[in-house]
Each structure stands twice: as C-alpha cells, then as structure tokens.
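User: tokens in, sequence out, please.
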C-alpha cells in the first residue's frame, strides 16, 4: 500500500481488508453497539476521541468479522484484527488501573448505601454508580485519553485506528453480558470487590447471615416434654407394610389423567436464549438468536406431537 503525504504528515489511504474466516461478528443490528447504559458509556469514551472516519470503518470491521480474537485480562485487552495485509494486526489496549487503596475507599463508599450493595450483589450495575465513584474522588470509566494506552501494529499513524475501534465496539457487547468488566479493566475482579464491600459492611445482613456468632453451636432444648414420663422412650410411628407381591410392587399404581396438566407448545420460541441476550464474540454469518430460534420452534412442535401420540407424517 503506497504512502501519501499531506503537509508534514504521512497517511495511508483507505484499503480493503482481506476476508477473515471464523472472525468475531457483532450481534447488535444496525445502530448502536450494546444495549445497557454502561455499554453505551464505554462506546461514548471511544467516540469522544474524534477520530473521524476511522470510527465508521471500525464499526464495519466489527460487523464483518475482521476481529479474529479478543483476550481480556485484568487491566488490559489484546486482540488480532485482519486488515489488508496477510498477517493480522496486533491490538493492545491498557486501561489505567486504580490502586487497591483506591478500591477500598470505593467499596466503603458504595457499601454505605444499601441500594448499591444490594444491586451489585445481584449482578446489576446501578444507574447512578458513577456519581458514587465521583463522590469518592474517582471515576468508573476512563475520563481522559491518557487513562487509556492503545497500540496497533498497523502502519496507520492515527491512534486509535480503525482496528482498535473495531475491538472497542465488540467490547461494548461484552459489557452487556458482564457489567463488571469495567471493574476488571480498572484493576479489580468482581469477587475481590465483593469481598471488599462485604468487609466494609461487616455488620450488614446483606453480606452475612443473621446469626454471626462463630464457634458456638446452635442451642437445642433437651428438656423432656411435660406430658411424657421422665425416662420413657416414645414408641416408633407405625409404618405401612410393603406389598409382598413383586409384580404389583414394581408396576406401581396408575397415574392420574391430569398429572401433567395442560400441555402446549411454548408461547415464545427460544425464550431462554432470548433472556440471555446476544452471545458475545459470536463467530458465524448468522446472528446467534436467528440461528437457534428455528430449531427451538421445530423441537417444540415435534415434542408436542410425540407427547399427544401423533405418529403421523408430521411427527417424523
């Protein structure tokens, strides 16, 4: 690819990427990436960098499957993105981590409000959690460009480039699945943060059982009942004798006609996958829900036919 110059700067004209096989494709349809407020907040950080047309090309890369893999570690992200050259480009993203001391302050601030503790323990990200972070003197999401360290092995001088942008957009969908991903990128795993918060709420019923006495067994009333003579052993309850006829024993009694109640096909096909939402980092030409919904519908219809005893051609 030839270089061109504009004033003192060299730049690379738009190029057509090579076709990527088995790449990660965005699950969101045309429009924004991510549905939750924290996913949109992550995308807003990227779009605040004003990188122009590279944002559009990054969205195109994310939708067409040019990102081959994404690895998320504590405080960093690495990915391989297929561009116009034979060798994929290596993308690195590092997020400025908060210190353990900072996280202890944040945990204490959040633990002081029961609504935050309850929602976080339930796996939810409260809408006003950013205000709580700011009140403690910190920010949940990166606020400045220097809070992010990004790099790509491509020859484009712009940083972030379209390859970095593509990874950003796909991470927006991962944020929908895991709201605590931003905690991880800021240097704190979910379980470790929960331990900090529960430690700050040591006297709270939210994190500990009602009875917090350690090393003391539960008391048991050993006083004999008033209506029983002291020292007498109560008689064992009478038991029903087993049927001595082996055939009747193993056959059992007949089942009631309404044992299963009303049986019908589900009103909504693939209801469980739909509750899970879009599967992040999905590698296929068809969206996950679009791919599995026909199978759920067919299985429901066939299962109902078999249950009611319809063995005609439609049940095959």
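Assistant: Sequence out:
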């Amino acid at each position: 690819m030839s270089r061109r110059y504009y004033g003192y700067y060299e730049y690379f004209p738009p190029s057509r990427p090579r076709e990527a096989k088995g790449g990660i494709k965005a699950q969101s349809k045309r429009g924004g990436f991510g549905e939750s407020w924290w996913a949109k907040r992550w995308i807003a950080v990227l779009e605040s960098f004003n990188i122009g047309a590279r944002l559009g090309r990054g969205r195109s890369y994310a939708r067409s499957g040019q990102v081959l893999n994404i690895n998320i570690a504590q405080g960093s992200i690495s990915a391989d993105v297929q561009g116009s050259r034979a060798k994929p480009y290596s993308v690195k993203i590092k997020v400025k981590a908060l210190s353990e001391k900072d996280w202890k302050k944040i945990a204490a601030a959040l633990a002081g409000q029961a609504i935050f503790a309850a929602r976080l323990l339930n796996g939810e990200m409260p809408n006003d959690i950013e205000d709580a972070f700011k009140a403690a003197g910190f920010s949940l999401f990166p606020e400045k460009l220097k809070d992010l360290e990004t790099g790509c092995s491509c020859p484009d001088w712009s940083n972030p480039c379209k390859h970095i942008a593509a990874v950003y957009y796909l991470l927006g969908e991962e944020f929908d699945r895991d709201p605590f991903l931003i905690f991880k990128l800021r240097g704190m795993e979910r379980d470790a943060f929960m331990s900090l918060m529960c430690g700050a709420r040591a006297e709270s019923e939210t994190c500990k059982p009602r009875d917090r006495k350690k090393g003391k067994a539960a008391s048991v009333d050993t006083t004999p009942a008033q209506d029983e003579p002291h020292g007498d052993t109560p008689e064992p309850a009478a038991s029903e004798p087993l049927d001595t006829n082996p055939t009747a024993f193993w056959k059992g009694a007949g089942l009631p006609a309404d044992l299963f109640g009303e049986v019908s096909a589900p009103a909504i096909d693939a209801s469980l996958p739909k509750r899970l939402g879009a599967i992040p980092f999905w590698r296929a030409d068809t969206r996950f829900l679009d791919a599995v919904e026909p199978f759920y519908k067919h299985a429901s219809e066939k299962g109902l036919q078999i249950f009611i005893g319809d063995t005609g051609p439609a049940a095959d």
